[in-house]
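Notes continue from the previous slide.

Worked example: a multi-chain complex. Inputs as given:
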Amino acid sequence: MTRVERYLVPRTIAEAAGGLRDGNVTIFAGGTDLMPQSKSGKAKFGTCLMNIRRIGELRGIKRTASGFSIGALTTITDLRDSPEIKVGFPALWRASDHFASDQIRNAATIGGNLANASPAGDTLVPLLVFDARVVLVSRPNGALQTRTIPMTEFLVGPGKTSRRPDELLTAVEMDAPPPGFTSRFFKFGTRPALDISTISIGLGAVRDGEKLRNVRVAIGAAAPTPIRAPHVEEALEGKVVDGATIAAAVSAADCDIRPISDLRASEWYRHELVHNMLERMLSDVGHG
Amino acid sequence: MNVREKASGDTLIGKRIPKMDAPQKASGKTRYVHDINLPGQLHAKILRSAHAHAGIRSIDVSQARSLRGVHAVITAQDLPFQRPIGVAKDHLPLKRDRVRSLRDEIAAVAADTEEIAEAALKLIRVDYEPLPVVATAEDALRPGAPALHGEDLVCVNRNGTTEVVHRAAPGNVAMTFDYSQGDIARGETESDAIVEDVFWLHYVTHCCMGVSGVIAEFDSNGNLTLYSNSQVPFLHRREFGELLGMDPGRIRIIQPPIGGGFGSKLDIYPFEPIAIYLAQITQRPVKLVFTREEEFLASPTRQPVLLKMRSGCTKDGILTFRDVETVHDNGAYTSWGATTPFVMMQTISSLYRVPNCNYQTRAIYSNNPYAGSFRGYGNLQATFAVEAHMDRLAESIGMDPLDFRLKNAQDPGEVTPQGMNFRTCGFKDCLRIAAERSDYQRKHRDNVARWRDPDPIKRGVGMASMLHVGGGAKIYQSDGCGTILKLDDFAHVTLITGASEIGQGSETVLAQLVCEELGLPLSSVTVVNNDTDVTPWDVGVHASRTTFIAGNSAIGAARKAKDKILAAAAVKFDGKADEYDLKGGIVVDRRTGNGLIEIDKLIRSLHFSEKAELVMTTFYYEPPSQHQDKKFKGDVSAAYAWATQVVEVEVDTRTGIVRLLKVNAAHDVGRVINRLGIEGQIEGGIVMGQGYALTEDLIVDHAVVRNPNFRDYKLVTAPEIPEMDVSFIETMDGEGPQGAKGVGEAPAICVAAAVANAIYNATGVRITALPFTPERVYRALRGQAKPPVWDVGS
């Protein structure tokens, strides 16, 4: 059993990044994943515990030249209450609305949801649809260094990310989607609240007459990380959403997903759900 | 008789009365056992087994004992006179040389803080010799399976002699039940239609909001006080006396407000004697409270059942026979779950008239968690099977399912072959009213017509009914309850009852019944019900008995008090006692209705007179019910409760998710005493039944509980709760208090059975295993389900 020897409460990103240099630091933000995981033994505390909740500059949704930057400490409730998110990024807004419960949404942060890197992480699927980038800050030798990487590079495996131990996840950035881009998110759980996705699907595209352009599809809880589904995207890109297209897209999903069997569902059932729910979402798109 | 709420200023019966403990609970002021801390108290933690089945070669507690802040570490070795607990006395609180499940208690620590106790547990070294795990009852019955209780359990008495306290159970058979009526062979020959199925009823657990906990304290005279949430304090007092080799009279059980019972506190579990042993050794108060994970792993479950049923009827829709065999997975030790056949056979033999009936159960040891009693007590399982067959038989002879049920339903006045006498019986009214209010027959027909419809969302209605004891159950020598009632010189009533409040609202109902007799407002009653040194004997909270038994007892005491007051009035006003009555706190003249004197004033005049008398009475009520004989025959309850529930569901055939939209419930409750309370009981019971049907599933895989947390064990959440329409059928039971029957368990019983029938009505697919989680339903719809099979011999 490791003992926590130091407890740090930085007030600025620079201070926090400095504190991370020593290594073996456990970062605490909302605590909604960390606490149950440490209790069950799944997560081990490092010798230093860093509470980043008092770093004011980490919280909030800001406009940038190309779109928006969401601070790592922005809570899921903040996302759900944000008119910019609701209007500009409906799939992300829907995911935050279907996220756990009020109490958890009030505490949980988007940075934590990213860093936890659960294959079923609710916000990760829409963030993939919006081609989001993760901002990581370190302070290797006094000066702050920033690394910005796409979601697909950030998510490495279940609970694994490409964040280095000396890096602080400070924000996630999204460009404003192209004009006419619409997005949807669907989460299947066994109950409407307080549930972890059995599977989830994010869908975004620009409707060009009858055709779909700029199609982006992401799927959660069907592979070691939430994934983009390139085969599904290819089957839809530039196509009219009719029965044949939907059938092709649904069967293409098999090339993209690699679900497992666990407590929540069998591999077979996850395959079936991805098929049926993708079909349902695409039929809805096809109908208007 | 569907009695509507009546407006009457004169009576408290049938009114909507908030529970007396509601303000305290709603404001967070209630002090549960978790909130109680005694001066000098130590905290205890239990070391449980790392293996589901293993021999214990050695236990080294030396490091744990030397940890600072640790006051005692105990194992079976420190307790030479340990005696077994449980229904079959096959279970030592601390295990000696063998563990039989992952919940098994190996050692326990008492320390200054919980954290120290926890740290000490990690320092205990146990050398195990792993043994083959018996993961299911089927495995336990295979030839050559390890015998889990293959040897006699021998204990050493305090006088040095030894005693066999539990006989070896060869073949892992813990308990058997065998009941029959009529002649099955004859029933088969008379049948035009026969159906047969195998059902699997799964593991669920109570999920009380308050986790299990106890505080044990010995005073300097060696008297033991327990702060315990026992549902049966008087029986447990005696059992603790036997366990500890002490006079039960020196054991006092104080029951703090409970965070949920539902039957889970009907047995003694190892943590309770363990806390007592630690208190004895340390001579300090010892508090032991479970974590939520422990609550999932080490509290009892509902009895899982594999059930094979064969039923028949004539082409005119008359039941001919029912043949049932079950295997109960007993788990590692025997608690009340093994005895659920008592209730199951009642439903199977007597819910509907069935002239020929066999019922057999084998309770089989395994390395799984063991089952206890749980609201409904086997009746959810039995009703699930019986009501599936009522629908299947009706379909096979082309009869409407409601008409088929009405043809076979019991009537008032029937005495069943099992000996139950249905003096009042509103069953047919329940069937008719639930069907009418839900438009069952029309919807049932229309839904079948839509089976081939392309819409992926299907709708279904399903019906199920239940019979349960409603006037106590004579399981023990007495099924009685005592009351002490005192009226002080301000006419304030202290009602001292043996009946425990476990959240069911008994305090309020008892106060109502007493005030009804004494013509006093509810605010003038204090109920005392939580201390065995004060309260008179009661058999405990089980079998939906408290309103009926404790209610009659309270009425008896109140009537004696009233007699005394009226006698005093007769002396004072020079009349006869029956010329007076008590109303609104005043003695009134019966003929004129005129008030004569305030009750408190009259009581004071009685008290401060030369004769100096107080108004204090006692009453003991014993219901006129019978013990069952060895063939399980006898009129076990003083009244029987009935209900029909019709549920409406929506099945999404693309995901398998089943939404429960509406429940129309019609309950024969005898009479409504507290309308608000009974609505709460019924709504809560329906939601518990909904969880059993749709979401709750304690996943026990190779003797391991895989989901010991509320994330993966899914209770129903608020948005899933259906619309409910509850009708009360008031049959005015002649023995019941103000006509009432017990209703505590009834509402949970039918839901799963009705949902199964509704899913069939929606989709044409019959699922015989619970729960109806999306994947199970989806598999069944796609022909990918593995239905339960009977591979347990006979």
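Summary box: Residues 6-51 of chain A form a domain with the Uridine Diphospho-n-acetylenolpyruvylglucosamine Reductase; domain 2 fold (CATH 3.30.43). Chain A has three domains: 6-51, 56-175, 181-286.
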